[in-house]
């Protein structure tokens, strides 16, 4: 059935491509449990139904489609997420779900009958773009995040996660997690690691440790025109200096630091801000470097606040330790696919599940090397190669 796989990929892809796409930027606004993502969840259910795959939910907002007994043990899980960052790319997340459905088609067309249940997952709020904690669905499922913390998370409009979930009973589901024997997530590559290679698919070795730190800087709101420069306690200065310091400290360490989100109160052109809030996204190849980076930035922030006469509060919003994927599994899949093995600085639900079951990731080449942006891309041929690779891996893992 593989001969027209690229065409079948494009056909299925075009069903979801318009959902949640912003006409101006071309990026996606698919926030967890909002209309576009709910529409994609409906698409997921329809695709599962077309394949006679019953769908279950885990109470946390995660969806599962089952090939085999939904209560069956030692299942192989595959899938990814639908949600996006604001104006994100098309492939980050949905590629892993669309590819999983097509991989099921490939296996069935080849007459494969798995000896283990095969489960497709759509994890909720992987980006943390609405409620602020990434991999919220997989963290709840695994117990990495207590439901009471999730219930209190609020989006920009003040809607809590509990309200967004409706009457679902969020919380750890060890009995469900215990039924999974392995997890494989296919994902678009989010850097340039495959751009200059002839490999359309790679296997992941690790995810860099990373985290998010919110820093609130409080100063004295005042009039832009009547307040002397010497009399100001301007939090925007403390914030601006911290952004520059984070950039420098990251470069010194070969790490990554980003401040991509800021909020200003009262956010008026002719008013000195009373509060500026920034969010630091920090990542490094190892935990020691990451800790050193964050410590250095916190120190620079405090030092500058003293100079500016501002007050600073730093809150760790999420932290993800180094994820070293199951080395034996990664090597086994790399040999099976004749694919390179590479680390990533991007977080994934696979990084959360890896702490609970043998987990692997497949990356599909992204010719732009750009992600979390409308410029994110993948060719239909490479996506078809990804489906073939995923089908081979799922056959390898589900057939004894
Ligand atoms: O932020 C990340 O690394 C992922 O895309 N959620
Ligand atoms: Mn992402
Ligand atoms: Mn992703």
From TrEMBL:
GO terms for molecular function: hydrolase activity, acting on carbon-nitrogen (but not peptide) bonds, in linear amidines; metal ion binding; N-carbamoyl-L-amino-acid hydrolase activity. Keywords: Hydrolase, Metal-binding, Zinc. Binds 2 Zn(2+) ions per subunit. InterPro entries: Amidase_Cbmase, Bact_exopeptidase_dim_dom, Peptidase_M20. Zn(2+) 1 binds at residues 81, 92, 187. Allantoate binds at residues 212, 270, 283. Its cofactor is Zn(2+). Its EC number is 3.5.1.87. Zn(2+) 2 binds at residues 92, 127, 372. It is an enzyme of class 3 (hydrolase). It comes from the Bacteria. CDD domains: M20_bAS. Pfam families: Peptidase_M20. Belongs to the peptidase M20 family. This is N-carbamoyl-L-amino-acid hydrolase. It comes from Micromonospora jinlongensis. The lineage of its organism: Bacteria, Bacillati, Actinomycetota, Actinomycetes, Micromonosporales.
């Amino acid at each position: 059935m593989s001969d027209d796989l690229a065409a079948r990929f494009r056909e299925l892809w075009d069903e979801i491509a318009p959902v949640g796409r912003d006409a101006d930027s071309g990026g996606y606004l698919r926030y967890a449990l909002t209309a576009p993502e709910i529409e994609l969840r409906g698409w997921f259910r329809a695709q599962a139904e077309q394949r006679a795959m019953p769908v279950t939910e885990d109470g946390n907002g995660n969806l599962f489609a089952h090939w085999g007994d939904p209560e069956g043990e030692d299942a192989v899980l595959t899938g990814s997420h639908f949600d996006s960052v604001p104006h994100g790319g098309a492939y980050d997340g949905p590629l892993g779900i669309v590819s999983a459905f097509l991989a099921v088609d490939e296996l069935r067309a080849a007459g494969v009958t798995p000896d283990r249940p095969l489960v497709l997952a759509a994890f909720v709020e992987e980006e943390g773009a609405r409620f602020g904690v990434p991999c919220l669905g997989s963290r709840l499922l695994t117990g990495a995040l207590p439901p009471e913390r999730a219930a209190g998370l609020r989006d920009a409009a003040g809607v809590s996660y509990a309200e967004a979930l409706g009457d679902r009973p969020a919380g750890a589901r060890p009995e469900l997690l215990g039924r999974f024997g392995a997890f494989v997530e296919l994902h678009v590559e989010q850097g340039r690691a495959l751009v200059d290679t002839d490999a359309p698919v790679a296997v992941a070795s690790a995810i860099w440790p990373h985290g998010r730190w919110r820093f609130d800087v409080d100063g004295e709101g005042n009039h832009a025109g009547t307040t002397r420069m010497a009399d100001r306690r301007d939090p925007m200065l403390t914030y601006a200096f911290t952004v520059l310091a984070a950039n420098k400290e990251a470069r010194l360490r070969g790490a990554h630091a980003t401040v991509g989100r800021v909020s200003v109160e009262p956010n008026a052109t002719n008013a000195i801000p009373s509060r500026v809030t920034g969010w630091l996204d920090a990542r490094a190849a190892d935990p020691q470097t990451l800790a050193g980076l964050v410590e250095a930035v916190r120190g620079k922030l405090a030092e500058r606040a003293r100079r500016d006469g501002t007050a600073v509060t730093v809150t760790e919003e999420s932290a993800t330790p180094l994820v070293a994927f199951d080395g034996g599994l990664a090597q086994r899949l790399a040999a099976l696919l004749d694919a390179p093995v590479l680390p990533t600085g991007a977080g994934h639900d696979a990084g959360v599940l890896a702490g609970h079951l043998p987990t692997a990731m497949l990356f599909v080449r992204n010719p732009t090397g750009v992600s979390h942006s409308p410029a994110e891309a993948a060719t239909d041929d490479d996506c078809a190669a990804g489906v073939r690779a995923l089908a081979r891996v799922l056959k390898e893992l589900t057939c004894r």
